[in-house]
Amino acid sequence: MKKILILGAGTGGTIMANKLRKSLDREEWDITIVDKHKTHYYQPGFLFIPFGIYNKQDVIKPKADFIPAGVKIIYNDIDRIVPEENKVLLEGGKVLNYDFLIVATGTKVDPTETPGLKDELWQKEIFDFYTVEGAVALREFFETWQGGRLVMNIAELPFKCPVAPLEFVFLADEYFTKAGIRDKVDIIYVTPLPGAFTKPKSTKMLGELLNEKNITVIPDFYLESVDNKEKKIKSYDGQEIPFDVLAIVPVNKGDDMIERSGMGDDLNFIPTDKHTLRSEKHENIFVLGDASNIPTSKAGSVVHFAADVLFDNIQCAIKGRELRAKFDGHANCYIETGFGKGSLIDFNYETEPLPGTYPLPGIGPFGLLQNTKMNHYGKIIFRWIYWHILLKGKELPIENEMTMAGKKR
Amino acid sequence: MAQKTVAGVNLEVTDDGYLADPSQWTEEIAKEIAKEENIELNDKHFEVITFIRENADSGLTIRKVGKSGIVDIKGFYDLFPGGPLKMSTKIAGIQKPTSCV
After folding, report:
1. Which of A65, A145, A364, B38 could form a disulfide with A357 if both were Cys (CB 3.0 to 4.6 A apart)?
2. CB within 8 Å: A198 and B99
3. Domains contained in chain A, number
4. Structurally, how many domains does chain B consist of?
5. Least CB-CB distance to A162: which of B63, B67, B101?
């Protein structure tokens, strides 16, 4: 019996377990997946919790519901990978051998990387919304807040779901407008990027939208520390920004297990061939999604597109053939912009987000780099698609490779 | 792409002033570009620039330079005030770092 081992039963690991089990002979291939948690989080939904749009119950389901019959799931902490010996050590002493390994352990926020961040004000006046605990604590804070300076800051690049902090400030604008205190709330968006976003066209569009909604952008701010006494964030070049409440995207890192295995870069992301998705060092190890260092967004849509490529390449690797599928870095992100509208961006390694229609050229129904009600519905419907189609590795009517059809330069 | 003469060499540069061909770089060119940014290069600058040229293909970040053992992040800002990564890569004659989204 030959073995495929998947580490991480999040979006990527779950999709791969489903795709591989359907295609590989059960007499020939054993598939095992390991994760420390039993709960699957719909992470795009965390954003809506602080504003009372979703509850905790809306974003969780048991992982076991999405793992197909014929795949063995083990709930256990992973100690380390020993790539030279083709084995993975679990906490508690169990050893798993593999012929092929897929690492899909994702990225996590680490507030301890920034001095003063996880200190006395943590989850009192400083919150993250990348954990369900942080999102729920922030909701409780907002329910009784009377107004002041709301600062949204991104500590480090790269970070998971690069549009989420933008969506956060757009939704905050709507939330405090409806609460009747928008005139008492200053919303300030503080980013290490040179503008609202990374690439020129989307930065322009999103920058104008922020301006329209009276949200201040402070670019080129690289966070050094948080002062809990004076309630200020401080940058390496001496800028100081006071806050009454701080929403933070803490430093993102790959799993600690990657570090213990000696396989990561300085943020524990695994050096990975950006086209084949194979580890740069080990022939029989593939890396899917946020755990890799490929230069695209850390986001579920990327994992979903990349999973098609990885699936093809695993088939090649099993047969000892050259890897023929090439990932193009395709990402597709809905951006909630508040008041029932949304925007959409679609891009890859080579092509920046451009205006147009998606997925059907000239028809849509979604508008790229446009602010429409239909885009908002897309985001809302996506939660259903995620649980029922995407995780199970079923086909969606969109191509994994980005297309220029429907886009305008 | 534009043409520019730096330190007596005719160079092709991008719209925001980065060398199109990193192999054309010399220390003299670095000094000239630095001067335009009001920086007088010293040995420490060159140590950082050497590190940046050697790691050009590995996804450079400010954090990575801060862990290089040559300077910490604060020191990096002191050497290249404002945008240390943007400025140092320009002076080092490599491509502008793309912050991935």
Report:
1. A364
2. yes
3. 3
4. 1
5. B101
For A266, the closest of B67, B74, B86 (CB atoms) is B67
Chain B CB contacts of A237 below 8 Å: 77, 81-82
Looking at chain B, which residue has its C-alpha nearest residue A113?
Answer: B63
Do residue A164 and residue A129 come from a single domain?
yes
B100 assigned to active site: yes
Find chain A residues with C-beta within 8 A of B59's C-beta.
Answer: 265, 293, 295
On whether the pTM is more than 0.90, the answer is yes
Rounded CA-CA distance A297/A265 in Å is 17
**Residue B100 pLDDT class (50, 70, 90 cuts):** low
Find the closest chain B residue to A219 by CA distance. Answer: B83
Q: Rounding to the nearest 10 degrees, give the CA dihedral for residues A92, A96, A102, A106.
A: 0
Domain annotation covers residue B99: no
The H or E element that residue A39 is part of is strand A39-41
pLDDT digits (tens, 9 = 90+) for A34-92: 999 999 999 999 999 999 999 999 999 999 999 999 999 999 999 999 999 999 999 99
Domain boundary among A226, A252, A278: A252
Tokens of A264: 């990561």
Backbone angles phi, psi at A152, to 5 degrees: -105, 120
Query: How far is residue A129 from each of residues A51, A167, A331, A338, A377, measured CA to CA in Å?
Result: 11, 12, 22, 17, 22
- Do the domain assignments include residue B96? no
CA–CA gap between residue A373 and residue A379 (Å, rounded): 10
**A154 in the same domain as A225:** yes
User: Taken in order A80, A318, A299, A378, is the CA torsion positive or negative?
Assistant: negative
- Which two structure tokens, joined as six digits, stand for A348? 């890859």
Looking at the domain assignment, is residue B98 inside a domain?
no
